[in-house]
Amino acid sequence: QVQLVESGGGLVQAGGSLRLSCAGAGLIFSRYNLGWFRQTPEKAREFVAGISWIGRSTYYADSVKGRFTVSTDNAENILYLQMISLKPEDTVIYYCAADLLAPKQIIAATGEYDYWGQGTQVTVSS
Questions:
Q1: In the chain, which stretches have pLDDT less than 50?
Q2: Torsions phi, psi for 89 (to 5 deg)
C-alpha cells in the first residue's frame, strides 16, 4: 500500500523559510517522477516543483524559481521542498505526488500522478 505523508508546514512571516518533507512508503522513489503541487479553495491545483525519475532533473514553476528547491533522499524515500523568501501569496496547502516511470515532459501535469499525499498547510503572514 502506497502512502505519501507531508510534514513541515506551518505559519511563517513574509521573507521567512520553511522546509516541507514528504515521506513515502510502499514505493521506490527512484522509479517515480516526484512533484510538489499547491492549491487554494478558489484555484485549481498547480505545479510547484518536481524531480524526474530519469536523470533526476528538477523543474520549477516560474513563480517559485530562485526561492524554492526540490530534492530527494532516495535511500530514505523522502522528498523535500526548501522554501525561502516566502510571500503571503505562497499561503496554500502543499501536496506531494508520485508518478510511476513517467516521461519528464509531463512532470507538471496534475492529472498524470498516481499517488498523492494529504497535504500540509503553509501560511505566510505579511
A1: none
A2: -70, -5
